[in-house]
Write a structure and sequence with these properties.
Number of domains: 2
Number of helices: 8
Number of strands: 13
CATH architecture of the largest domain: 2-Layer Sandwich
CATH class of the largest domain: Alpha Beta
Structural class: alpha+beta
Distance between the termini: 15 Å
Low-confidence stretches: none
Mean pLDDT: 95
Radius of gyration: 19 Å
Largest sheet: 7 strands, mixed
Bound molecules: ligand DP6
Strand content: 25-35%
Helix content: 25-40%
Shape: globular
CATH topology of the largest domain: Ribosomal Protein S5, domain 2
Length: 302
């Protein structure tokens, strides 16, 4: 059977960095994110007795994709071969979470193509096994991943926020985030990060409840810098920024526009603002290529 799903990338406000259990992708800490309307993966999965081999679109990590398909084939108790056709509308491996949208779309399409009927919670648990952050691309809007599964905190229309991604690099990264997670304990600052996260989550959840953008922005920047502090002090150290990244961070910090930044495992800067200030921000950064994102619904069949 055949199914096609589309799933958004997501940007984490409180980051997932480090796993208690690498095989099960169980995180050390809860994370909170927003689905991105302008960055998505569309994936078609077809299983058939007529296929003699598994195939995956060129340019994608077929080993990791087929490992995930194998988990789902085991659940469905089938050995039918698969054809996976997948496509991102944004540059892969540039700090826009392509593994998140990719494994969310793959999970939803494959589960339906296999005739399995699972709850959203179960879909998030399965997507997590493919890529941790993928579990946050399944529920709608603003999402919390806590332990084994993820769920929506608020729908996409709760708060008219923007994530304006300023593109300063589109080349693949030297060290994947998967490899980075494995050495997180070598940073002398990782333990401190874990101690600070519960209070930071409370501050973020309060900012959400009150729609207090300043508080939201301050927490987002703090957690981003804290995660990169850990990354840069791991052994081997991970430097995902380039000179343009730092230039944009400095510009945001001047607060000429009401905006805050966050950065994942890549050089591009995600600038967060409220919808009413979108034009001010895009105008301020107009010399750069940008992707404008609103909060979006989670993964779904099309
Ligand atoms: C920096 O979800 O890509 O983007 O579980 O190995 O696939 P795997 O890791 P991944 O890690 C994402 C790390 C991050 C922060 C975040 O999105 O929370």
């Amino acid at each position: 059977m055949k199914a096609t799903a589309v799933a958004p990338a997501n940007i984490a406000f409180i980051k997932y960095w480090g796993r208690k259990d690498a095989a099960l992708r169980l995180p050390y800490n809860p994370s909170i994110s927003m689905n991105l309307s302008g960055c998505f993966t569309t994936t078609t999965v077809e299983f058939s007795k007529k296929f003699s081999t598994d195939t995956v679109s060129e340019g994608f990590n077929s080993k990791r994709i087929i490992e995930h398909i194998d988990r789902l084939r085991n659940i469905a108790k089938t050995d039918e071969r698969v054809h996976v056709v997948t496509n991102n509308n944004f540059p892969t491996s540039a700090g826009i979470a392509s593994s998140a949208s990719g494994f969310a779309a793959l999970t939803v399409a494959a589960v339906f193509a296999l005739g399995l009927r699972l709850s959203e919670k179960e879909l998030t648990e399965l997507a997590r096994l493919g890529s941790g952050s993928a579990c946050r691309s399944i529920p709608d809007g603003f999402v919390k991943w806590d332990g084994e599964f993820a769920y929506s905190l608020y729908p996409q229309d709760y708060w008219d926020l923007r994530d304006i991604i300023v593109i300063v690099g589109t080349t693949g990264k030297d060290v994947s985030s998967s490899a980075g997670h494995d050495t997180v304990e070598t940073s002398p600052f990782f333990k401190k990060r874990l101690e600070e996260i519960p209070a930071r989550i409370t501050r973020l959840e309060t900012a959400f409840a009150r729609k207090d953008f300043q508080q939201l922005g301050e927490v987002i920047e703090e957690d981003c810098l804290d995660m990169h502090h850990v990354m840069q002090t791991q052994d081997p150290p991970l430097y995902y920024w380039n000179t343009e990244t730092v230039k944009i961070m400095e510009l945001v910090k001047k607060r000429m526009v009401p905006a805050y930044f966050t950065i994942d495992a890549g050089p591009n800067v995600h600038i967060m603002c409220e919808g009413k200030d979108e034009k001010k921000v895009t105008n301020y950064f107009k010399q750069y290529k940008m992707i404008i994102n609103k909060p979006a619904q989670g993964a779904h069949l099309i």
